[in-house]
Amino acid sequence: MPGKVKTIAVLTARSGKADALRKLLEQMVEPSRAEPGNLRYDLWVDPAHPGRFVLDELYVDRTAVEAHHATPHFQDYLAQIPALAERSVWSLDEAAVA
User: Fold this and answer.
1) pTM of the full predicted structure?
2) For a Cys-Cys bond, which of 16, 58, 62, 93 suits 39, CB 3.0-4.6 Å?
3) pLDDT tens digits for 16-35?
4) Is 68 within a domain?
């Protein structure tokens, strides 16, 4: 049975791009949280590596993830990321979630 979807993205700033990356990621928080299918959208920074950020996202289902990916704010983010950061993303289906 389809269920919630967790997305984890790890972004490591390219040299000299940490501030620009952080600004872009911070701009994603409020519009992403406002999406109807979003349950959680949190931005974390690694204190040992201040240019490394983690996006922790939770959606009601895959349809909500697809809707997020279609938004103008996500499309803008996606267009800017290659110049700002290395990006790894995991999209996870719930298995045993409280």
Assistant:
1) 0.93
2) 58
3) 999 999 999 999 999 999 99
4) yes
